[in-house]
Description:
Layout: H1 6-12, E1 17-20, E2 26-28, H2 29-45, E3 53-57, H3 62-74, E4 77-80, H4 87-96, E5 99-105, H5 109-119, E6 126-129, E7 136-137, H6 138-142, E8 157-158, E9 172-174, H7 181-188, H8 190-193, E10 209-212, H9 219-230, E11 234-237, H10 243-253, E12 257-260, H11 262-269, H12 273-276, E13 286-289, H13 296-306, E14 310-316, E15 319-324, H14 326-331, E16 338-339, E17 343-348, E18 361-367, E19 372-374, H15 378-383, E20 385-386, E21 389-390, E22 394-398, E23 404-409, E24 414-416, E25 419-421, H16 423-430, E26 436-446, E27 450-459, H17 467-475, E28 489-492, H18 506-514
Amino acid sequence: MGSLGFWRLAQADPEWIAAVDPDGTEHRAGDLLARADRVVHGLRGLGLEPGDGFCGLVPNGVEGLVLYLAALQAGWYYTPVNWHLTGPEIGYIVADSEAKAFFVHERFADAGAEAAEAAGLDVGRRFAFGEVPGFRPESELEDGQPETHPDDRTAGATMHYTSGTTGRPKGVRRRLHGIDPDDSAELLTFLLGLFGIQPGRPAGQDPQAHLVTSPNYHTAVTQFGGTALHMGHTLVYVDHWDAEDTLRLIDKYAITNTHMVPTHFKRLLSLPEDVRKRYDVSSMRWAIHAAAPCPVPLKAQMLDWWGDCIWEYYAATEGGGTIASPQEWRAHPGTVGKAWPISELLLVDDDGEPVPANTPGTIYMKMVSGDFEYKGDKAKTEESRLNGFFTVGDVGHLTEDGFLFLSDRKSDMIISGGANIYPAEIENEIVLHPKVADVAVFGIPDEEWGEQIKAVIEPAAGVDPGPDLAAEILASLEGRLAKMKWPRTIDFIETMPREPNGKLLKRKLRDPYWKDRERAI
């Protein structure tokens, strides 16, 4: 194959700045390569063989990147763990993934130590970045190891755990094919190629830089960041996302591409005009977003501000998907795009029968090379499948010409008086109000109607919550949303419970209303 893939690029150009930590520390490709090679030798010394795996509880930055690069050239599964979980929850993932080693950053020392104990992991297989009680310094794993490229290299993979909307999270595990890691890395670049993204290396290409805006334990963050690195882009890491800081980094590092979610757009657009004009964002050529339906006016405002660089896709940890170029979206506002060249879509009714165009149905997807299993859960794997296609339970419709539009997650649908109501449609209208920072809509029990519509709203900075604000927000829906879709009641909250990737933890808001019921509708 060609010349892409981190290991090839780092050997050819060791001085290339491959990553920038959140504190601004720059890391040369040659140094990262040497560290990844030492980690491979060290873990092989512990007895790790192809097909084994290990976990990392680490913040955004080069520690996780080194672990990722080690696993992907030694035939191992690397599982980056959500650092917002509790010790026992992390311990479950360490045990369930059958991790042969566990790396913990001192920032998460307490939860990491508790997790290692819960998983019953041998002390000799616990490694710390910084000080973690009961863990060996990670440097001990690397000390004395050669910086030579390991022999018998074979491609590994990441194994991410789904967020577990029902039951415990499950690892999404793909079969390892035993191919050369360099060739595998080059194949991975197909993903960014779908968006027309160009390599930044080998030398002589236009420099490219990718801004990592969300935690590295999310699948898309790992995939887009890792793939950008394999294309020779510089990775610029963010520790805690901040709207103005994002603009500052785009300006400072001439960021050309990033991966975002609609919540990021809302917060960027909420910045005062003078702050927005302070920074040059003209370097941005591919601002890719996903994870939730994006209100049409919100995206239109981003396109007006940043130009035709806003790309959208629809996919899941399990695979994908669709893609919408800025031009396609302008022609079909609200679409998440058409199927990838290596993907197929199937929309079905509750009986599993295909639905006609423009008719809501459960979305199933299939990728040419998308074979996966939920580790240790054959029943869940089979339950999500239909004739080789899989679903994560989203509902939408396809137009005659193949453009997909999302309605909502099936489990979030409200059934009121026999009518199906999609919260996302209501949320997309309410969030446009200038006094609204964030919103969640869901169904709560109603003796007469089955469910009634509840909205929980996070007011914009400096806005007082209360009946007057609720009345103003409802009045703004006049003529834009059928009265049957208006929230019956509005509650206010100081901070919406969202994961850092923008995913709303709606269960935290909804569950208290259903706790005395036998089942939630």
